[in-house]
Amino acid sequence: MASDSSTFPDRFGGKVLLLTGSASANESEVLGFGGATAWRFLREGGAAVVITDVQDEIGERSAESMREAGFQATYLHHDVTNEDDWLSAIERTVADYGRLDCLVNIAGIQDTMQIADTPLETWQKVMDVSNVGMFLGVKHGAEAMMKSGGGSIVNLSSMAARWASPYGAGYAASRAGMTHFTRGAAIQYAPHNVRINSVLPGWVKSPFTKWIWTDDKLSKYRTDRVPLGRWGEPEEIAAATLFLLSDDASYVTGSELLVDGGVTAGFYPPVTD
Ligand SMILES: NC(=O)c1ccc[n+]([C@@H]2O[C@H](COP(=O)([O-])OP(=O)(O)OC[C@H]3O[C@@H](n4cnc5c(N)ncnc54)[C@H](O)[C@@H]3O)[C@@H](O)[C@H]2O)c1
User: Fold this and answer.
1) How many structural domains is the chain composed of?
2) What does the alpha-carbon distance between residue 110 and residue 90 come to, in Å, rounded to a whole number?
3) CA of 64 to the centre of ligand 1 (A)
4) Any domain includes 37
5) In which domain, by residue range, is 195 found?
6) What is the pLDDT along the chain (273 residues), one digit of tens a residue?
7) How far is the CA of 29 from the centre of ligand 1 (A)?
């Protein structure tokens, strides 16, 4: 069942994908964006995925579940704020699978406090994982892609890049940084046939948000503010990400794709009395 690719198009034949922050990729558990993206990439003909994270036990189990399903998959320990980790993850990907065609920068952490309560170290850490991680990924990932004629990179930002809240100012600022960096990077690497885009998810059920969607009150507060009337699923973020990674998006670079059920389109719910 898991290796049945018959219902999917063959968009990624022979291609190799590396995803950061993607340990949660075991289909018998709650999937992260990386996990949902990796599985569908493989089912759409991808040659191999390299899932990386700092949660080694979960990541190893996830890669094993993909191999058991008949796919080529490797898990690597990879702290995205560490340049040596980036260099060795890319070197190992190319050594094992011959090339790097696609990269998704997914690693992220949250700060949930108001500015007055946020320690500098927390602010710095959020910036480092979102922005330093993405910078190193684009720098070294694009270099590897250029060696095999080009590729595609997606930076997983957030609707928080567009829409501020009374909490998590560091997270929102780091996510806005991701979308703007994406534009500059897209311009720089377009002549080398490397496309770079960002995806801006809304509220999606994943390990990242489990503390919210398992709490009835916190969950309903959000559902009530989504014009489509529900939380998103990791597979819906994967679908948008894979569109941008694929040749279906061959003329798309420097763009940002909102996948938020309409939350940031305007005021909602309507005032009725
Ligand atoms: N789930 C949502 O509603 C939502 C909405 C908007 C944006 N996002 C963003 O999407 C991304 C993916 O989140 P997800 O929903 O798949 O949840 P997730 O928790 O499965 O993924 C985030 C991963 O990042 C990893 N990580 C943290 N610090 C790291 C580091 N220094 N190096 C490498 N990996 C590190 C974590 O271990 C975790 O596995 C995050 O960047 C998050 O900010 C999520």
Assistant:
1) 1
2) 26
3) 21
4) yes
5) 16-205+233-260
6) 344 556 788 999 999 999 999 999 999 999 999 999 999 999 999 999 999 999 999 999 999 999 999 999 999 999 999 999 999 999 999 999 999 999 999 999 999 999 999 999 999 999 999 999 999 999 999 999 999 999 999 999 999 999 988 999 999 999 999 999 999 999 999 999 999 999 999 999 999 999 999 999 999 999 999 999 999 999 999 999 999 999 999 999 999 999 999 999 999 998 886
7) 16
